[in-house]
Amino acid sequence: MMSAQRKMWTMMWSRRCLSRRRNLSSMMFYSFEGKAPTIKNSAFIAPSANLIGDVIIGDRSSVWYNCTLRGDVNKIEIGNETNIQDNTVIHVRSSELNEEPSPTKIGDQVTVGHGAILHACELHDSSFVGMGAILLDFSIVESQAMVAAGALITSGTVVKSGELWAGRPARKLRDLTLDERDFIYQSALSYADFAHRHLTYSHPTTPQTHLEEE
């Protein structure tokens, strides 16, 4: 059942979404070989983010400033209430160069921290990737699992549900505490709120200037 807080957010987002189209022309969306990004009206896409090709963004999700999501040779799919934080890069794997193709799939209520790099990997619902982490081809982060900031998840690695992985290359550090599991959920809800506020109140402006006192 949807909580009262989430119901309130949903109503507020719905009102705002009616007028959000005015901002889309300033955002950096690119088609590639006939495929273009598909974005729910309730999603927040920062004006400086770049979305290219076959990219799908779900309800109340957010892609923050200076992110690049390049779905040129395969699909990038992002679920609902997921946040992709500033300076993150997401790409995919094609069948060219004799590679096995792989999209990047990110579920619902996922947090991807600032400056992460995700390549042809899979993040299940309610997972968490810390700032500056790198996830390589065919890696999987299961639901209620956490990748620490700066970690390197090598190709084909599976981070199991309830585990915390850290290091370069990353290894299992320990099991998550109940507080850490709750933090994953709260992080997604908080960023859904941040996204609504940016969608509502953020707009281009000129900086305020002050004369230096003599």
- Described by the principal axes of the CA atoms, the overall outline is globular
Helix vs. strand class: alpha/beta
If you compute it from the alpha carbons, what radius of gyration comes out, rounded to the nearest whole angstrom? 18 Å
- By CATH reckoning, the class of the largest domain would read Mainly Beta
Low-confidence stretches: none
Give the CATH topology of the largest domain: UDP N-Acetylglucosamine Acyltransferase, domain 1
Task: Using brief descriptors, characterize the structure shown.
UDP N-Acetylglucosamine Acyltransferase, domain 1; alpha/beta; 18% helix; 20 strands; twelve-stranded parallel beta sheet; 214 residues; 2 domains; 31% strand
Topology:
Layout: H1 4-17, E1 28-30, E2 38-39, E3 44-45, E4 50-57, E5 62-63, E6 68-78, E7 83-84, E8 89-91, E9 104-106, E10 111-112, E11 117-119, E12 122-123, E13 128-129, E14 134-135, E15 140-141, E16 146-147, E17 152-153, E18 158-159, E19 163-167, E20 170-175, H2 178-201
Helix pairs in contact: 1-2
Q: Any overview of this molecule?
A:
There is one protein chain. The protein has 214 residues and is of the alpha/beta class. The chain has 2 domains: 84 residues, Hexapeptide repeat proteins (UDP N-Acetylglucosamine Acyltransferase, domain 1, 3 Solenoid), CATH 2.160.10; 66 residues, Hexapeptide repeat proteins (UDP N-Acetylglucosamine Acyltransferase, domain 1, 3 Solenoid), CATH 2.160.10. The protein is built from 2 helices and 20 strands. The strands form 2 sheets. Strands 1, 2, 4, 6, 8, 9, 11, 12, 14, 15, 17 and 18 form a 12-stranded parallel beta sheet that branches. An 8-stranded mixed beta sheet has the order 3-5-7-10-13-16-19-20. A hairpin with a 2-residue loop joins strand 19 and strand 20. Helix 1 runs parallel beside helix 2. It is globular. It starts with a helix and ends in a 13-residue tail after the last helix.
